[in-house]
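Journal club side-thread
Mid-discussion, someone asked how the predicted structure for our own chain would compare to the paper's figures. Pasting it here so we can look after the session.
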Amino acid sequence: MIITGFRSRVRRGSGERREGRRARAALAALVVLLALALSGCAGGGIRRGDAFPAGYGTGVGLSPFRLGDKFGYLDEVLHNTSSSPVVVSSITFKGAGNVLRTVQVKIAPLVPGPPSLPGGRFETDPPVQKTAHGCLVETLRPVKGFRLPAGGWARIWVVFQAVHTGRYKITEHVVNYTQNGIHYRQALPQGYEGAVTRNGIQLTPNYLEKPCLSLTTPLER
């Protein structure tokens, strides 16, 4: 006689149940360790840095301008709030795409002494401005190897050139640096957005830059 409709059951012993629990616990621990490792890395084995206050994401807009024009920003502030100096190796700009080309990146130290230029867009390189103190010319230093001491301040100077028509939206300044022999990468949420057209406005030095043109080079063609 063949009886159908029933499935045989295999009773698992307590030892087998314990092995299953151990395997699941080991897997959960591995997942936690991987998550912790990934949360501290910015990609490529480089750790995510926090030497600079990130602040809030902001964007600076610009009216549509002409293909081929250049413009510079002396805008993002680097303030080393950590207890150790940092040595910057590179700064890149996420979101430029193929519309803009990064022509130049430098760092402007903010140190006691003569007044520094305020942040903003400039059509001169190095940036200049007529003030009550006369013509001020911003001091610029190479990015690679720039040392910012603990508590130190600096600004990022970047020059872009429009190489294609279209819209661009730069969302981050990505700073790579070394601190205490360890490589870090930190994204600062400062950005720029706008559009490039063939018949846009021509970018020229403003009325505060023009009196000081003999001390610099205009970015206009």
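Post-session note: The chain is about 10% helix and 45% strand.
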